[in-house]
Design brief:
CATH class of the largest domain: Alpha Beta
CATH architecture of the largest domain: Alpha-Beta Barrel
Number of helices: 19
CATH superfamily of the largest domain: Metal-dependent hydrolases
Number of strands: 9
Order of helices and strands: HEHHHHHHHEHEHHEHHEEHEHEHEHHH
Structural class: alpha/beta
Strand content: 5-15%
Shape: globular
Distance between the termini: 51 Å
Largest sheet: 4 strands, parallel
Strand order of the largest sheet: 4-5-8-9
Radius of gyration: 23 Å
Length: 469
């Protein structure tokens, strides 16, 4: 399956449907710097700033979006994650897959990335695979990680880091005068796996990292507080939690203390006790974030690791996750409300993975926003960060909240080539507003909407997250 022409379809007015959209994008949005406040880039690669081994390392390895598409097409796993398969063979299979991805955001992202980073203006398909593989690898010999970020006007980015991380790569980056600012993000998801077989091993690692021996609930919270303080000293101002739903069960401190002590003795808790433990720890962490004036994030709704066989073979985050259908509103309201009642609610970003709940997430922030605290419904996430998903998220936010206060796009990516997603978002934002202007639904005031667009792309976020300057 191939296109007859190899020429790129991406024109200057890509996704911009009228002259007003073009004016808004090129005069206001295009040149804005990028603050990528949530991604999964490896900080050690930025710190070392050495040439990549090739296009596969930077583009295919670790990208479970591509892996998922290739599996859907029936590509053998050895050409996706196999250790004994050459880079060229894997790249050829991806090139074979790309024409089948039409309609999927991967098709747009692939060609935006080829053009923006490598100035390659041809379609990736079997007939062009050799040339594109050769040219990208040639350019990557001199394209260093920091330069790639600079080329995309990345001013600051925030990685996703486990509490036990020593942050040595971030410390090395902070001493460098070149490249964007890079800050850690506190992601303590593993602390909520109390039922996992290796949980005690993780607590041992947390003990070593914090210097606090974990014997009970108080000492566990002390260990987490110690790591939060350490992250704060190293520039962190944001936390993140990837949960199926918000933990908000009723519990007493003594109950949770007993649950943890039993786990330390080797007893796996029942589901009800697991929820009590997780609810308590999440609440206590959120109070700590407030005290450090951090922003907190909740990524909600993913049903992860569905293919148990593949998870056992390859681990987590390998393309076997999907949208979940969990109840969200009541628990989320309970948690935010409890924090609000004791004046411990900090700036919060909520991400929704199930589009049927867009209205729930659009209306929740308005319950708790004030002159001191701002709750944001974050950008369309994961399976939803495509054209329809982003437009629907922004339309729903506009209908039920304030689009003008929106904090815009992030990559949520493990790839250094993913930053054209900001361009993709900005083009869609400008086009959406321009269509309403052209249809007489908004005033034809380009300067007003140009300023609003620049705020969404950059300024709103810079005010929202209090990063160390």
């Amino acid at each position: 399956m191939e296109f007859k022409s190899n020429k790129s379809f991406i024109k200057e007015n890509f996704l911009l449907e009228n002259k007003t959209a073009e004016q808004l994008y090129f005069d206001y949005a295009e040149s804005m710097p990028i603050i990528d406040y949530h991604n999964h880039l490896p900080p050690d690669v930025i710190a070392n700033n050495k040439p990549f081994d090739g296009i596969n390392e930077i583009w295919l390895s670790g990208d479970h979006y591509k892996w998922r598409a290739m599996r859907t097409l029936g590509i053998e796993e050895k050409f996706i994650t196999g250790k004994n398969t050459s880079d060229k063979e894997k790249f050829d299979k991806w090139a074979y897959t790309v024409p089948f991805t039409v309609g999927n955001p991967l098709f747009h992202w692939t060609h935006l990335e080829l053009e923006r980073y490598f100035d390659i203006k041809m379609l990736l398909q079997p007939s062009t695979s050799n040339e594109i593989f050769r040219e990208t690898n040639h350019q990557l010999k001199t394209l260093l990680p920091k330069q790639l970020l600079k080329d995309m006007r990345v001013e600051m980015l925030c990685t996703t880091d486990d509490p036990i991380d020593d942050l040595s790569s971030h410390q090395k980056i902070s001493l460098s005068l070149d490249g964007p600012k890079v800050f850690p993000g506190f992601r303590p998801d593993r602390i909520f796996g109390i039922e996992e077989e290796n949980y005690l091993d993780y607590l041992d690692a947390l003990t070593k990292a914090s210097g606090n021996e974990i014997l009970d609930l108080n000492s566990l919270l002390d260990a987490l507080l110690s790591r939060i303080a350490f992250f704060h000293e190293n520039g962190c101002r944001i936390s993140d939690h990837g949960l199926e739903f918000t933990y908000s069960s009723h519990y007493t401190f003594n109950e949770v203390n007993a649950i943890l002590k039993n786990r330390l003795l080797g007893k796996i808790p029942k589901e009800e006790d697991k929820m009590k433990f997780n609810s308590c720890v999440l609440f206590e962490l959120f109070k700590m974030y407030h005290d450090f004036e951090w922003t907190q994030q909740l990524h909600l709704g993913a049903l992860r690791g569905n293919n148990k066989k593949l998870k056992k073979q390859l681990g987590a985050d390998v393309g076997c996750d999907s949208i979940g259908d969990f109840s969200q509103a009541k628990n989320l309201s309970n948690l935010l409300g409890k924090l609000n009642d004791i004046d411990k609610l900090t700036n919060t970003i909520l991400y929704n993975l199930n589009p049927s709940m867009n209205e729930v997430f659009a209306t929740m922030p308005g319950n708790f926003n004030s002159d001191k605290v701002e709750i944001q419904w974050g950008t369309a996430w994961w399976f939803l960060d495509q054209k329809d998903g982003m437009e629907l998220q922004m339309r729903t936010l506009s209908n039920m909240g304030l689009l003008s206060k929106f904090i815009g796009m992030l990559t949520d990516s493990r790839s250094f080539l993913s930053f054209p997603r900001h361009e993709y978002f900005r083009r869609l934002l400008c086009n959406m507003i321009a269509i309403d202007i052209e249809n007489g639904m908004l005033p034809n005031d380009i300067s007003f909407f140009g300023e609003m667009i620049q705020n969404i792309c950059y300024h709103n976020l810079k005010k929202f997250i209090k990063y160390k300057s």
